[in-house]
Amino acid sequence: MAQHDESALAGRVAWVTGAARGLGAAAAVALAREGAKVVVSDLRADEGQAVVDQIAGEGGRAVFLAHDVTREEQWARGAATVEETFGALHILVNNAGVAPTGEYIENLALEGWRRVTAIDLDSVFLGCKYGIRTIKKHVTQPGATGAIINISSIMGMVGFARNADYNAAKGGVRVLTKVAALECAELGYGIRVNSIHPGFIDTALVRDAVEEGTQRPDALVHSANEMFDMIALAHPLGHLGAPRDIADAVVFLASDRSAFMTGSELVVDGGYTAQ
């Protein structure tokens, strides 16, 4: 893992959604190690508190916030809580998400489509809405910058069969990010908005999706281990990514090292989309 100046994010407040495990947990811990105070939000209270405890054990400051990212009133209440707790908000990481239903379009129920797009796209819209409203109040001093980082996917850039709901949602995140970036620049808010596009990362979400997919009667591969090997070999680097790979990208986009980047797509995929 790359070493950073410990003060890179000193004095800043970050809010990470879906931060109880996987990419969100790794991002929350990485931001805290860089000096940020972190709000860890999720619906998994026990796992979320464990991330807070880890950060505290390393000398950082963090709190847990129970948060359903599909409910607008919880975004409004959450933003107020962040300000009451830490006095400001400078960084928002829209990470919360669910895996695709795994159905072909002709068999995909509208209810399943709406669930995936609500969590993977609508929540990012709400995050941008309340993130912009809140962050702009705290980055008015000269030289201060805010950052919104939206976790998209390589599936927001290329299509995958049986992933229409997820592809559509992550593709929406990709372009929504650009619109938010342009609006913040046009209005002079001092907020940069960028997206990260992970390849397949070794997380519980990916493992659960692979396990479930291989157990389907119509699955092309019925061994989870075999499927993991196939996915790994699909990446030119020959292996899946680790959560810290995405966490490092989050830290970069949250810090002043990326001060001239907004509306950008940071692809972290082991070369998958280069093929």
Low-confidence stretches: 1-5
Q: Biggest sheet, in brief?
A: 7 strands, parallel
Order of helices and strands: EHEHEHEHEHEHHHE
Strand arrangement, major sheet: 3-2-1-4-5-6-7
Under CATH, the homologous superfamily reads: NAD(P)-binding Rossmann-like Domain
Q: Residue share in helices?
A: 40-55%
User: What fraction of residues sit in β-strands?
Assistant: 5-15%
Tell me the distance between the termini: 26 Å
In the CATH classification, which architecture applies? Answer: 3-Layer(aba) Sandwich
**Mean pLDDT, rounded to whole units?**
93
Number of helices: 8
* SSE-based structural type: alpha/beta
Please render the helix and strand layout as text.
Layout: E1 13-17, H1 22-33, E2 37-42, H2 45-57, E3 62-66, H3 72-86, E4 91-94, H4 110-135, E5 146-151, H5 164-186, E6 191-198, H6 204-214, H7 224-233, H8 243-254, E7 265-268
Parallel strand pairs: 1-2, 1-4, 2-3, 4-5, 5-6, 6-7
If you had to describe this structure to a student in words, what would you say it looks like?
It is a single chain. Strands 3-2-1-4-5-6-7 form a seven-stranded parallel beta sheet, sandwiched between helices. Helix 1 links the parallel strand 1 and strand 2 (37-42). With 275 residues, the protein is of the alpha/beta class. The relative contact order is 0.14. The longest helix has 26 residues, at 110-135. The chain has a single domain (13-274), classed as Rossmann fold. It is built from eight helices and seven strands.
